[in-house]
């Protein structure tokens, strides 16, 4: 959301200010006095709740029963400021939710209340952070959450996680730091399947590798050719210099370097 600096300033001040508030949102123990013009303009869900014949219309109160108050708060912060905080405290136990996990929850609530722009912000924040934190247990935890959440449109979030996991698969699948990751891959077959597909697709997308091969016609030519991908190739190749043809396995025996 490209909001100008000045609009962010005054919206920031208005967020949490009950003056002129015309709508109350309740979740758990938390209450927010908000402004319909801000909330309803960005969320068809809240727009409907405020304009239809729901009981919310007269009471000007919307109760969100099944949500996490810290995530609702960040959703509201986004609606006022165009951004949210990734690091939030988990409910009553005070245990800390990882920032990666917060992004997953934000993406789910954005889908629930029909705020696609917030969902996009959550994906880009998730990707940026996961690119730095893919070795952590938090990355594994976030993957588990996104594959088990009630979010109906979680495919883009899956793609973001799978892309980063595939890029670092060699380490995650072999090294100590990947222990938590491997547990999740075992526990969530859909993730393991999507990861495998992504790794295969990545291999196909890789640019061809060239290597140097000396012409097997050592008496008359012996020149060095640059040939592409002979590792898994079949058939024969022609020397650029003497035009002799040799089978791939003959060329491979004349390979100069790895
Ligand atoms: Zn040759």
UniProtKB/TrEMBL annotation:
Source domain of life is Eukaryota
Recorded hits in Gene3D superfamilies, A to Z, give: Potassium Channel Kv1.1, Chain A
Q: One of this protein's Pfam families, by short name?
A: BTB
Q: Identify the residues that the record assigns to the BTB domain, covering every copy.
A: 21-88
Transmembrane ranges? none
PANTHER family reported in the protein's UniProt record: BTB DOMAIN-CONTAINING PROTEIN-RELATED (PTHR47843), BTB_POZ DOMAIN PROTEIN (PTHR47843:SF5)
Its protein name is BTB domain-containing protein
Q: Which organism is it from?
A: Zasmidium cellare ATCC 36951
């Amino acid at each position: 959301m490209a909001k100008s600096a000045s609009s962010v300033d005054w919206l920031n001040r208005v967020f949490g200010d009950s003056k002129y508030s015309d709508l109350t949102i309740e979740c758990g123990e938390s209450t927010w006095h908000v402004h319909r013009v801000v909330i309803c303009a960005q969320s068809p869900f809240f727009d409907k709740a405020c304009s239809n014949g729901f009981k919310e219309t007269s009471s000007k109160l919307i109760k969100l029963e099944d949500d996490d108050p810290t995530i609702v708060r960040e959703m509201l912060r986004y609606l006022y400021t165009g951004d949210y905080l990734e690091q939030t405290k988990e409910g009553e136990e005070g245990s800390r939710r990882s920032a990666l996990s917060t992004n997953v929850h934000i993406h789910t609530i954005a889908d629930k209340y029909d705020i696609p722009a917030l969902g996009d912000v959550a994906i880009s924040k998730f990707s940026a952070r996961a690119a730095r934190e893919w070795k952590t247990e938090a990355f594994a935890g976030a993957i588990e959450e996104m594959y088990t959440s009630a979010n109906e449109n979680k495919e883009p979030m899956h793609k973001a996680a799978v892309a980063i996991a595939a890029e670092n698969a060699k380490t995650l699948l072999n090294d100590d730091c990947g222990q938590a990751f491997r547990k999740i891959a075992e526990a969530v077959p859909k993730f393991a399947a999507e990861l495998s597909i992504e790794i295969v697709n990545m291999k196909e997308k890789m640019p061809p590798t060239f290597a140097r091969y000396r012409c097997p016609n050592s008496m008359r030519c012996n020149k060095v050719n640059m040939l592409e991908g002979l590792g898994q190739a079949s058939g024969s190749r022609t020397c650029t210099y003497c035009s002799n043809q040799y089978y791939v396995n003959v060329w491979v025996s004349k390979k100069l370097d790895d």
